Amino acid sequence: MIAVHFFASIRETLGVEHKTFDLPADVKTVEQLVTFLASQHGDSWADVLGKGSVMVAVNHEMADRSASLQAGDEVAFFPPVTGG
Length: 84
Description:
The chain is of the alpha+beta class. Helices cover 31% and strands 25% of the residues. The protein has one domain (2-78): Roll (Ubiquitin-like (UB roll)), CATH 3.10.20. The chain has helices at 8-14, 30-41, 43-49, and strands at 2-6, 18-21, 55-58, 61-63, 74-78. Strands 2-1-5-3-4 form a 5-stranded mixed β-sheet.
């Protein structure tokens, strides 16, 4: 199983807070996870998650899209944050 969480405007746009599912055998990186989710849910998911500004964490640590995934991981997608 893998847990995927969506935060802030990403959650609002996609209309889902989290998903838990078996990690497909051919999904080994965050980028492949984005492709998989888009194939399951459509172009709106590809548009939102495919943005280069979307930040990713794997197991509570910031990661890039080449980060490896395995069963049991927790992935979070969230928009960039600004301070001020």
